[in-house]
Amino acid sequence: MKIDMHSHFFPTINQAEAARLSRDRGPWLHTSGRTGQIMIGDKPFRPVHDVLWDMNRRIEHLDEQNLDAQIMCATPVMFAYDAPIERALPWAQLMNDRALEMTAVAPDRLKVLAQVPLQDIDAACREASRAKAAGHVGVQIGNHVGNQDLDHEGLVTFFTHCALDGIPVLVHPWDMMGGERMRKWMLPWLVAMPAETQLGILSLILSGAFERIPASLRLCFAHGGGGFAFLLGRVDNAWKHRDIVREDCPELPSSYVKRFFVDSAVFDPRSLKLLVDVMGSDRVMLGSDSPFPLGEQRIGSGVIEHPELTPQSKSLILGSNAQAFFGL
Ligand SMILES: [Zn+2]
């Protein structure tokens, strides 16, 4: 069984539909044959190809990649957390309904995560539960809402709701820090994205938020948890030797790895080995970040061809963990 639990879609939203969210900042898709462009208002945002929106092509891609199933989530530019809720909620509902329609080509192989308007926690909880009832297998959220990180009271309320309603949550980094200092060479993706994920995980651990969120929450972080596995020793050392690191966090930071999962998108056998050593092979799931250029091009090859992971570990990472996590 080979399940890719981190991949993206973008629905065929036109400019008029995007303008209902925001004329200048609504994201939409301009297509021309098998290629396309995600647009933000009148401006090109990212060139894309048809596997992103054409589900017949997507299924061909799954066959080429020998995938049994793939879980798709929104391209983060679709989140719209800064829009007024009276626009953001119908937008999220439209994205979620379109996503589910896209899976109709092969509902047993294509699964989707919902997006929610996190700027309004009550609306986000309702939309997460509506989407779950409609057939979404979980939700994807960004790792922050403006200046609110994952330990914010509203986010803790959202996580608690998802735990109680049995909704798995994937946290994806977005809206990256760094600004003017990271204008070139995809530095926001290479430096700030892993740092955003590290910030999200540490905000939950060091704030004590994990003490307030039910342990039943199924929570996963993208991109192997960013810098987390490599930096965990640094965090534990700080917790032991500085009281200001301990003040809200009652247990050693490394003891909280049992509270979440990560995907396998780290692109190096040494990194994957470290990740599995730190998290345990029961807490890593195959995630490709397909179909973008920064994703794994031969999906699952980093796990399948790994020289040191055991066959049992590979089996868990390639499919069994995701089956259990998403209840497939
Ligand atoms: Zn991604």
Automatic annotation (TrEMBL):
The enzyme's E.C. designation: 4.1.1.45
Pathway the protein acts in: Secondary metabolite metabolism; quinolate metabolism
GO biological process, one term: secondary metabolic process
Entries under SUPFAM superfamilies matching the protein: Metallo-dependent hydrolases (SSF51556)
The protein's assembly and partners: Monomer.
Source organism of the structure: Pseudomonas taetrolens
An example molecular function term from Gene Ontology annotations: hydrolase activity
UniProt domain Amidohydrolase-related: residue ranges: 3-328
Keywords: Decarboxylase, Lyase, Metal-binding, Zinc
Name of this chain's protein: 2-amino-3-carboxymuconate-6-semialdehyde decarboxylase
Any single Pfam family the record assigns to this protein: Amidohydro_2
Top-rank EC class of the record's enzyme: lyase
Keyword Lyase carried by entry: yes
GO cellular component: cytosol
InterPro entries according to UniProt: ACMSD, Amidohydro-rel, Metal_Hydrolase
